[in-house]
Design goal:
By secondary structure, the chain is α+β, with helices and mostly antiparallel strands. It is built from 17 helices and 19 strands. Helix 5 packs parallel to helix 6. The model has no long low-confidence stretch (mean pLDDT about 95).
């Protein structure tokens, strides 16, 4: 057992920041001496004294032998991995590296169609061929859940030459599928299960939270420590266990997608966040769960509002081991506002502007909130009060939405993949008005953000349901990202 009280990287950074010396190395501001005054006024000088480069005492991220190696080993033990890599380019680079390390040009990888855009980037970089699975869909709530074990088993029977399976656990809504069953099926083919666990870094620290991906049998998982724990934005970790993945390939892949000038502020924040959770994680998560349950209970009692729960109204897929919804992260709160006659986008704007309550993201019918160790009882009180007032004073006539539009969009018959994402991304393209793009091949990534799930990707056929969905999202206040034209009046398509 390692001493989880230690913070080797944080301690080394603190010592070097305090050391008096003449700096003739990067960064150019020289420990804050050359920083602009407005920025110094905002952040103070201390943070810049610690903004250092790869000095001898601070180790090297790409060949760690000192304090970074020690910090990563401590993280491995705390999170239950056999090896851990610190990430300074977010979980995005971890997902990309996971695909690059397991798939080469033309190799097949099985993954959900509602995967994050970082996985599409990994397909483009690697040249891998996606075998997409439709996630289980709840038409009552208009929410996509996880892929099911049955879907994974069927895909592997049809594509036994696949090199890996990748899944999202939990989803942006906090929904968890049956990862243990998916791992068991995947391992029958002796290939690795890769998990985008960006929103599940806290699972390892409380028994009332869903099973951590590694405990469920994942071979590799990527976690955004900054999203739900106490690290700085962009600071994440990649963990592996077992022998199905070559550690050297992970290290080499990360060298391709991470900065060669990593921020030691981000790295040290990972070391500190790990220590905090290793020592106090259960207590912090107990308090967080208590706050979340208070919010869930009170908001669910407000007329016109409902919250996503594990046993929400049943849908066609049902609940249970074979479904895409077997557990829910109770710290993730999704509130359905459509019965108030409001879209999620409208409610989001009202809460933000009128009540100073800001959600993680809005969708057509819902608002989703992340309740974490940084929230306070006052935050919960403000959240509940804002929804109480919203329901009383901003209710409108019933909202009419095409509730099955999302389902229409995410069926493979609507927009089949005619080229690999890499082929289409690098192909000669042209820009056309939206009205002229129906049935053309898309060459860019198009997704409402957040949560960053692509509705179109390079190689897919553009269809009317897809265009209708994106235009409806935009008309109701959503933001379309990834595409060249941010106004979403044109699209890049394969040139004929």
């Amino acid at each position: 057992m390692l001493n989880q009280n230690q913070t080797p990287l944080l301690d080394a950074l603190k010592a070097n920041a305090a050391r008096l010396h003449a700096p003739f190395y990067t960064p150019g501001h020289k420990q804050g001496e050359g920083i602009s005054q407005p920025l110094a006024d905002l952040l103070g000088k201390a943070v810049f004294r610690a903004d250092l480069t790869e000095l001898a005492d601070l180790d090297n991220l790409f060949a760690p032998q000192g304090v970074i190696q020690e910090a990563q080993q401590l993280a491995s033990e705390a999170f239950g991995a056999s090896q851990t890599w610190f990430l300074v380019n977010g979980s995005t680079c971890g997902i990309e590296a996971a695909i690059l390390a397991t798939c080469g040009m033309g190799d097949k990888i099985i993954l959900p169609r509602n995967v994050h855009s970082s996985a599409i980037a990994g397909l483009i970089l690697s040249g891998a061929i996606p075998i997409f699975l439709n996630p289980e869909y709840d038409p009552v709530l208009d929410i996509a859940h996880s892929i099911t074990p049955n879907a994974v088993e069927s895909a592997l029977q049809q594509h036994p030459d696949a090199k890996a399976v990748l899944t999202v656990y939990p989803t942006y809504y906090g929904v968890c599928g049956n990862l243990s069953a998916i791992a068991s099926i995947t391992h029958q083919y002796n290939i690795p299960l890769l998990v985008d666990e960006a929103h599940g870094a806290h699972f390892a620290f409380h028994p009332e939270l869903p099973t951590p991906a590694l405990v469920a049998g994942a071979d590799l998982t990527v976690q955004s420590i900054h999203k739900v724990l106490g690290a700085m934005t962009q600071a994440s970790m990649l963990h592996i266990q077992g022998n199905r993945i070559d550690c050297d390939r992970i290290s080499k892949a990360l060298q391709l997608v991470q900065s060669t000038s990593p921020s030691y502020l981000l790295l040290a924040s990972l070391d500190a966040a790990r220590q905090q959770m290793a020592l106090h994680g259960k207590m912090l998560m107990s308090r967080t769960l208590q706050l979340a349950n208070e919010a869930r209970t009170k908001i669910s009692q407000i007329p016109g509002l409902s919250v996503l729960q594990l046993f929400s109204p049943p849908f066609e897929g049902g609940l249970g081991g074979s479904s895409g919804f077997v557990a829910l992260d109770e710290t993730r709160l999704t509130v359905t506002v459509s019965d108030l006659g409001l879209t999620g986008f409208e409610a989001d704007e009202i809460l933000d502007e009128k009540f100073a309550v800001t959600a993680e993201f809005a969708s057509l019918q819902h608002l989703t909130f992340i309740i974490s160790l940084g929230n306070t009882p006052a935050d919960i009180e403000q959240l509940v009060q804002s929804f109480t007032t919203l329901a009383k004073e901003y209710r409108r006539t019933n909202l009419t939405l095409k509730s099955d539009l999302w389902q229409d969009v995410f069926t493979t018959k609507c927009h089949p993949l005619h080229f690999s994402p890499r082929e289409a991304f690098f192909a000669v393209s042209e820009i056309l008005p939206l009205i002229q793009t129906n049935q053309r091949i898309c060459t860019e990534i198009v997704c409402p953000y957040p949560p960053g799930i692509p509705v179109l990707m390079p190689g897919e056929v553009i269809t009317e349901p897809v265009l209708d969905y994106l235009q409806q999202i935009q008309a109701m206040g959503g933001f379309i990202s990834g595409c060249n034209d941010t106004s979403f009046k044109t699209l890049k398509v394969l040139k004929i």
